Amino acid sequence: MIDIHSHILPGVDDGSRSLEMTKNLLALYREEGVSAVVCTPHQSRELRRAEQLKAQFALLEEKVKDCGVKLYLGAEIYYYDGMLDDLNSGELLTLNGTKYVLVEFSTRNEMAYIPDVVYELSVAGYKPIVAHIERYGYLSLDGWREVKSNGGLIQVNASIFTKKECAKLVKKFMKADLVDFIASDCHNEGSRSVNFSAAKAYVAKKFSERYDKYFGENNIFKD
Ligand SMILES: [Fe+2]
Asked: Domain tally for the chain?
């Protein structure tokens, strides 16, 4: 299993606060059978600091090199006007230097029409992955179909499968075959930890043929 969305790079965002916490989260990953994790710290217009993130990541890699979980660096980018320019200039990070870009949007109001942003990124040669789409209630199922037809990929959080009401919505998306990745988006050892159990159980029961797709075994770093 590969987790493409996590906040385990310590001390750089609202995720892991220390090397100790990251080590504990890596232990949880091992228990879950996760073999690789992409560290995706937050980036935004105000908080790009690509070089700092790369340096922090190199330090972390060195300190946990025998942990049994392969680490990659990426970012979760909060969409803003001008994001594409900063991606092109290298100020924003893609997933492990590939064309895959994890992007999130405002949850409160529609600052940007998500399908249009996806289109803009796709045309520029990127492969946008929209993070935790269960949060954007303002976009309809047809809107998400447009995201897909514009070249977007869709990620949902594994924790949603433990919440009955939210899970209902995500299951609707899965039935329409709109979901590409289920990821942890883990931040800490408490309420936002690594927990794939409910998601794995649901997928195994209802969509076993898509198990590899959802949990990243179809290594996205190959192309
Ligand atoms: Fe996140």
From this structure: 1
223 in any annotated domain: no
What per-residue confidence (pLDDT) applies to 219?
60
Domain that holds residue 154: 2-216
Q: How far apart are CA 215 and CA 36, in angstroms?
A: 11
- Do the beta carbons of residue 51 and residue 22 sit within 8 Å? no
Query: The tokens 């009401």 sit on which residue?
Result: 165
| C-alpha 40 – ligand 1 centre gap (Å) | 7
Question: Which residues, 6+ apart, have CB-to-CB distance to 174 below 8 Å?
Answer: 206, 207
In a domain, 221, yes or no: no
Separation of alpha carbons 1 and 64, rounded Å: 19
CATH number where 127 lies: 3.20.20.140
Whether residue 23 is contained in a domain is answered as: yes
Say how many Å lie between the CA of residue 124 and the centre of ligand 1: 24
C-alpha distances in Å from residue 70, one per residue of 12, 34, 157, 193: 20, 9, 21, 18
35-87, pLDDT tens digit by residue?
999 999 999 999 999 999 999 999 999 999 999 999 999 999 999 999 999 99
Instruction: Give the Å distance between the CA of 202 and the centre of ligand 1.
Output: 22
When pLDDT is averaged across residues 135-150 and rounded to a whole number, the result is: 93
- List residues, by chain if needed, whose CB lies under 5 Å from ion ligand 1: 76, 185
